[in-house]
Design a protein that fits this description.
Number of helices: 1
Largest sheet: 5 strands, antiparallel
Keywords: Signal
CATH class of the largest domain: Mainly Beta
Organism: Gemmatimonas groenlandica
Distance between the termini: 51 Å
CATH superfamily of the largest domain: Immunoglobulins
Order of helices and strands: HEEEEEEEEEEEEEEEEEEEE
Strand content: 25-35%
Protein name: BIG2 domain-containing protein
C-alpha cells in the first residue's frame, strides 16, 4: 500500500474514532487496536443500489442479488483480509423495514417505509459505520418525453457562462409502479443513459457532446427522485455540433431494468433539438 493510501486510511481511522467518541458507539479511542491484525477502522463499501424493492433482496444495477460489504483496516491503514465484520439493521427499534444476515450482509426489504433506513457494519465492540438505503416499490415501466425548446449554441464556448450555456435541459424519463388501482413513481431507482447522437458510448468529455448531471459533471447514471423521475443533460461542443446550419437533435437512450430484465418501455429514447448559434462578445 502506498504512503498516500495509508495516510488516507489513518485519516479515516481518526474520523471513525471521533464518531465513536461523539456518539457513544463502542469504546474510547484508546481501546482501538494497534497491532497489525487489530481493527482500527471500518468502512462500508458503496451499496450495490441506492434502494431495495419491498419483498425482494438488495440487487446491483444488473439485477444480481448482492450483499453489503465492509472492509476493516489496522492502524497503519492496511486491509485486514480475514476480519469478520457483522451487519445489522440500525433502525430495528423504529420499524421492521429491513432484515440483514449478520454474517453475509444479505439485505431483504420487508416493509415499505419513507426516508433513509440505516445499515450498520461493526467489528468487535469498538467500531461501527452507518450508511443509508431506501425501500422502494417494484419498477414496472418507464416512459419519457422529448424536449421541444431548441438549444441555440453560443461562441466562444469557454464554459464561463455557467451550466446552461451550450447544455440542454434535462432529458428525463419516469419509472413507474403499477398496482391494482394506479400508476405511481418509483423512487431511488437507478437509470442508465447513453448518448446515441452524436454517438458517445463511453461519455468521452472531449467528444462533440456528452452527458452531464445537474452540477455539470460527466455522468451516465441517475437515481429517480420521489416522483420517479431521472434525467441527464447534454453538454454540446458548440464548434463541433451541430455540423451545419440546420437544427439537429441530440438523442439519448435510457435503460431501466429490474432483476436484469428491461422494464416495459425500456430502453426509451428522448431527444432535444440543437441549432448552431453565432459568436458573441
Amino acid at each position: 500500500m502506498t504512503p498516500s493510501v495509508r495516510a488516507r486510511r489513518r485519516a479515516s481511522w481518526l474520523l471513525v474514532s471521533a464518531v465513536v467518541a461523539a456518539t457513544g458507539v463502542g469504546t474510547a479511542c484508546s481501546e482501538v487496536g494497534l497491532g497489525p491484525n487489530e481493527a482500527a477502522a471500518i468502512e462500508l463499501d458503496p451499496f450495490p443500489s441506492p434502494s431495495v424493492v419491498v419483498g425482494d433482496t438488495l440487487r446491483n444495477i444488473d439485477g444480481v442479488a448482492t450483499p453489503v460489504r465492509a472492509r476493516v483496516f489496522n492502524v497503519r491503514g492496511d486491509l485486514i483480509d480475514d476480519a469478520a465484520p457483522r451487519y445489522l439493521y440500525a433502525d430495528f427499534n423504529v420499524d421492521s423495514a429491513l432484515t440483514i444476515d449478520s454474517a453475509t450482509g444479505i439485505v431483504v426489504a420487508k416493509k415499505l417505509v419513507s426516508g433513509d433506513k440505516r445499515i450498520a457494519a461493526r467489528i468487535g465492540g469498538s467500531l461501527q459505520v452507518l450508511r443509508g438505503i431506501r425501500v422502494t416499490t417494484r419498477p414496472d415501466s418507464v416512459d419519457g418525453a422529448n424536449l421541444t425548446d431548441i438549444l441555440g449554441t453560443s461562441l466562444p464556448d469557454t464554459g464561463r457562462r455557467g451550466l446552461d450555456s451550450n447544455s440542454t435541459k434535462a432529458l428525463t424519463v419516469t419509472v413507474r409502479h403499477r398496482d391494482s388501482t394506479a400508476l405511481t413513481g418509483v423512487r431511488s431507482w437507478p437509470v442508465r443513459f447513453e448518448l446515441l447522437n452524436p454517438a458517445n458510448p463511453t461519455n468521452d468529455t472531449t467528444a462533440a457532446a456528452y452527458l452531464i448531471d445537474d452540477q455539470g459533471r460527466a455522468s451516465t447514471i441517475d437515481t429517480t427522485d420521489d416522483s420517479g423521475v431521472a434525467g441527464r443533460r447534454v453538454r454540446v461542443r458548440a464548434l463541433r455540433f451541430p455540423s451545419g446550419a440546420a437544427v439537429e437533435s441530440v438523442v439519448v437512450r435510457a435503460t431501466v431494468t429490474y432483476k436484469g430484465k428491461p422494464l416495459k418501455g425500456s430502453p426509451v429514447r428522448v431527444t432535444a433539438p440543437v441549432r448552431r448559434g453565432s459568436g458573441s462578445s
